[in-house]
Amino acid sequence: METKSKVSYYRVNKNRYAKNGMMVLTILACSLIVLIVVGLTIRSAPILFSRPLSELLFSTEWKPFKGQFGFAPFIVGTFAVTGVAVVIAVPLCLLTAIYLSEYASSRVTRFVNPFIDVLSGIPSIIFGVWGILLVVPFISKYIAPLFNVSSNGYTVLAGGLVLSIMIFPIIINVLLEVFKTVPNEMKDASLSLGATKWQTVKKVLLKRALPGVIAAFVLGLSRAFGETMAVLMVTGNVSKLPKSLMDPTYTLPSLIANNYGEMLSIPMYDSALLLASLILLMIILFFNIISRIILVKIERNYQ
Amino acid sequence: MSDNNFKTHISVQNLNVHYGKNHILKNINIDIPDKKLTAIIGPSGCGKTTLLKSFNRLLDTSQSPMVTGKVVVNGENIFDPKVEITHLRKKMGLLSQRPYPLPMSIYDNVAYGPKIHGLRGKKNIDEIVEHYLRKASLWEEVKDRLHTPAVRLSIGQQQRLCMARGLAVEPDIILGDEPTSALDPHSTQSIEAMFNSLKENYTIIVVTHILRQARRIADYIMFMYMGELIEHGPAEQILDDPKEKMTKEYIQGIIS
Amino acid sequence: MKKLRFIEEKIFRIIMPLATSLILLSLVLIIYTIVTKGMASLSWSMITETPKGGFYMGKEGGVLNAIIGSILLACGAVLIAVIISIPIVLYMNVYQRGNTKMMNLVRLCFDVLWGIPSIVYGAFGFTIMLYFGMKTSLLAGIITVSLFILPVIIRTMDEVFKTVPKELLDASYSLGATKFETAFKVVIRYGFSGLMTAILIAFGRGIGDAASVLFTAGYSDSIPTSLNEPVATLPLAIFFQLGTPIPEVKGRAYASALILTIFIMVISIISRYITKRFNRYK
Q: What was the pLDDT predicted at A53?
């Protein structure tokens, strides 16, 4: 009897210590967000305190050797490339997701799903290689002449195109989840009133799922925002404000990735690059948290 | 306490359970008779299952229940936060509405409990597994495939496996939450037969909404309605000569 | 007027499959391009030799350094991330199972962490390195990548562990098991396929990501012999070698791209197989 109760106390204590340990671990992992923000802020503090924020954010002069750090070309460049990507992705993803959730037979969805899975697993660098081999020459040879410009193909458009394909899977998957939360009874009600399927999609599905649809695209946008390698490889990396889709551009992630080598040799340069990651992080956190909160709310209402 | 005849005894004192604004159990007081089969009957939503689960503190934690009063097992109030519940749960086997075999083999399902409680040695464990599978009259059906996943058994076999699994930790009490509701008539019969043979050595408490089942197996009956324990007493008395109007109406099928 | 909606219906019934096909086509095109270009340069020596005469200029040799480097890096990172994430996921789904509000917040945290781009993890890893006075090395790369795949593993596993029925937990508790025993003996087994899928997805991320190791892992022509040496990785082998004017070196980049793609495809196929196969205890 005595040994038995001893054993059980051992088990009970093990359980208690494990619980506390696991809780600490969970809290630590969650606070990684804070750690990243703090770490980057500390490192970018030197440049943040030496120049007015407005100059950093709105100046277009990027001359590290002269100590001029204007982030505007990069911020604009990132938004431009991302914007193009989202504009391409919206119709294609919406149509595909509607097709897969409302129209396609289960055989079709079973055929398509693995493709989307594989697409989501392909590394950024592979998209970059593909971009260089196919998209860039294609733009230079066929698209640029259409607009009467000469371009080597390394453009905003190339970046946007490659990016759009990279964000297809995440957008489609979130859209499919969101569409699942629209009750079938609602669609049936609309159909039984004599509406066509497409009318039902427009008036019931999309209307009901609108917040989720927006969240899906914001999520895709925030994913596109931080993509580095592929964009770096196909946009030409010129720190000027792009005037058209056929201009080269330079994004924040590319800026960071491209200059890490020399950042410790020029004063303030490392601080500037870490400020670039901080700006990037802040924009992404903003979009990401908004879309996640929308999605959590949708799921809660569904349950 | 060292009395050989000592059996784990459950006594409920002024038990109240709230889920948010819902008052699920209202002031329950009862001493569960030892070594008898007690059936808890009553219409659905009357708090039968909540009462059963409060015996081993498996209340639905996601709705954060508020509990006042006591459930005293072996002289300890199990709702006292200082009480370590695991060794009390070991004293109570549970059969749920649907069988939930653990995600492992048939053998490991039975061996899981004894192993956790410190049993070692392959021979010992083999013996225990065979003994309890026999007790649950499942041995003959599974002895050649002990190491296949338990989920491949039929639902009826799974429920008997859950019984063997529960018995293997040597409880004094068996709790059944409508344990036959998912089963076919044949499996139901074998579970009921098992209850009848087990009640000589175990205190058994079974929630059921089937009156005929209560009549077949129960020695003692508790009738609940809207969270209150309306009446309790020996099975014949409750079924044939209920004192309360409410009980009478339920047994006659007027309320359900 | 009445006909209009039927015409609309017909039009959309045509363009929807077209949009889907276009997306599938883009994947086919990517793989086709990588395979044709890579096959031309892929040879036995490509996967069995390290580059001769420097990765940027030397025409001889292969990319073994990057293959081994990538595998070491991804394995190390996955190992660390799994060891950290299993207790977290079990804590979320066993100990805090009823606490939905809190867990939604925790899930939000990990979702947001998942959304942080790898370049930011790279930059963060770099600040850690500076803080501890570390040099670019295999170890620094492993730490950075493990941070970056941690939310991936946690959320992928979590999605499976969330589905463990409460009754199964109750069954284990009623046998007198503690939550700890229930977590590690029952829940892990129940979610085994989820664990494996999570590991594979994370491995794929780790092996394919360039931006997070750019600052932290460095690059080297040889296979590292210790955790403190810089290490080459396939993505960076592609990136750096693509930048040279020498066709043979570019060829090495294309071959690396093909090897990386094959890795990713194999991982994807295995994880499909596992999700189908390993649900035998459910």
A: 87
